[in-house]
Design brief:
single chain, mainly alpha
Length: about 375
């Protein structure tokens, strides 16, 4: 479980490190801030396409080998981005990352229940998903801190080195993991026939859109609207990520009682936080508290969604994970793209208000659909 959590951490680190240095890339490669946000949009979109293709194409391949191969793709993405001569090559590197993201999250979450059993499955999944929050702890502040210290290119290069170490570690400790069965596109289609699965996909997709429209542009918000120094913003990123780990690891007790209500409550609460941030941006202490609360609440959301999806589709866990990650990554792409459009056309404050309203809307949908829990 911990080796898989490390794999999750490096993937999320690579996905979101650019959030910390979007203004630097925008300046160095002569693109707008909204265009620089494509570094988050493109992996999400390519992951959405890749998830079902990887899980079907992998057939009965040993999942250990598949996980390692996806780690190598993360390495290549970072290495190419580090030496990219222009923004187009950076975008290509991020496509590689998207394939790795889609394949990893299609395969790995179901392994918590497979390897730990149904009784410990939610806890095992929370350990894996804690890697997601850990990646946020590393990725957001690393992008901010190391982007300032050594530049964004060397930051990508350092991430490549970390990817090498994690791949070597996984080769050393992961056992052979046989495929649960050969997935086909027909299996993927069956997921949509489960009513509660459809509810999870819609509610989770809307919440994730709101989350990433805001989180993609949290660095310029803190620097330009909250007028915080770069060092203090880095500390807030660390606090946000640590709070996310707390939310994820503390979440199983709440999630196991009622998964959909746990999701809806967390989504409504972090939506309120996002909507309030622009109005309270002038109070650094309040902003700090709200950022920490945002981290805890968001940490609950993927755990509630992922475990609910797996328990709703016990016969086809990898197909369910593939569809889930496709929808969530599409939502990440849409969210970051929407954020980019809004930040260029209406400003940073509007991004956070719209994001908050979107998250609250997802909670209302979940509450109205609670009869399907």
């Amino acid at each position: 479980m911990f080796s898989l959590a490390l794999g999750a951490a490096i993937i999320v680190t690579t996905e979101f490190t650019p959030v910390g240095f979007l203004p630097d890339v925008s300046r160095d490669l002569d693109v707008s801030l909204g265009t620089a946000g494509l570094m988050v949009f493109v992996p999400g979109l390519s992951a959405a396409v890749a998830a079902p293709l990887v899980i079907v194409g992998a057939g009965r391949l040993d999942r250990r080998l598949l996980i390692v191969a996806l780690g190598v793709l993360v390495l290549l993405s970072n290495a190419v981005a580090a030496v990219a001569p222009d923004f187009g090559v950076v975008v290509l590197a991020r496509v590689f990352l998207g394939v790795a993201i889609g394949g990893f999250w299609a395969v790995v979450p179901s392994l918590g229940f497979r390897l730990a059993g149904p009784q410990a499955g939610t806890r095992a999944t929370s350990i894996i998903l804690a890697g997601l929050s850990a990646g946020t702890v590393i990725g957001l502040p690393a992008g901010q801190f190391f982007g300032d210290l050594i530049g964004w290119r060397l930051t990508f290069a350092a991430s490549a080195v970390l990817a090498v170490l994690i791949v070597i570690g996984q080769l050393a400790v992961l056992p052979a993991i046989t495929a649960a069965g050969r997935m086909t596109f027909a299996h993927l289609g069956e997921v949509f026939r489960v009513p509660i699965a459809r509810t999870i996909l819609v509610a989770g997709g809307v919440a994730t859109t709101g989350q990433f429209a805001a989180s993609t542009f949290v660095t310029p918000f803190l620097l330009q609207k909250a007028h915080l120094g770069s060092g203090f913003a880095t500390l807030l990123f660390i606090g946000y990520g640590l709070a996310g780990i707390v939310g994820t690891l503390a979440g199983p007790a709440l999630v196991e009682r009622n998964r959909m209500l746990a999701f809806g409550g967390a989504a409504a609460a972090f939506g309120i936080v996002l909507a309030l941030l622009p109005a309270l941006a002038g109070a650094p202490v309040v902003v700090s508290v709200l950022i920490g609360a945002w981290g805890i609440l968001w940490g609950l959301v993927p755990l509630a969604l992922q475990t609910h999806m797996l328990t709703a589709t016990p016969d086809t866990p990898e197909a369910a994970s593939a569809i889930f990650i496709t929808v969530m990554q599409l939502a990440i792409a849409i969210g970051s793209g929407l954020g980019g459009i809004l930040v260029d056309s209406a400003g940073l404050s509007v991004v956070f208000v719209v994001s908050g309203i979107t998250a609250i809307a997802s909670a209302f949908f979940a509450f109205f659909a609670r009869h399907g829990v």
